[in-house]
Each structure stands twice: as C-alpha cells, then as structure tokens.
Design a protein that fits this description.
Elements lengths: L9 H10 L5 H8 L3 H10 L19
C-alpha cells in the first residue's frame, strides 16, 4: 500500500502552533486534515505542548 506525504505549509505549522496545548491532538488532526500520528510527531518535533485527552469538567454521574 502506498503512503502519501503531505508537506507542512507555513499556514499548517502556524495553525498547529496556535492550537497545540489548547485542544486534544485528535481534534487538531481533524481540523488540519491529517492523521493523529503525523500531528503528534510534528508537535513533538516542534517541541509544542500536547493534549492527549480532555478530563471531565463536571461530576461524573453513576460512578463511585
């Protein structure tokens, strides 16, 4: 199976830098039209903060 490489434009890098640390990598990947792995790799390469998941902000009902 062929692998396609999509180059990172200055606009994509700027958007990643703006969103890094504010949204989960999965959300950023969807917004950029890239896979989670490529966004994570680029964020680490650029030494950007990474949010892997969002913790519940309110009480969790039904759990003890």
């Amino acid at each position: 199976m062929a692998r396609w490489k999509q180059s990172w434009s200055e606009q994509d890098l700027s958007r990643l830098k703006t969103l890094a640390g504010t949204k989960p990598i999965t959300v950023i990947a969807k917004e950029l039209g890239r896979t989670t792995g490529t966004v994570l790799a680029k964020a680490i390469e650029q030494k950007l903060p990474v949010v892997h998941r969002i913790e519940p902000s309110g009480p969790v009902i039904g759990k003890r």
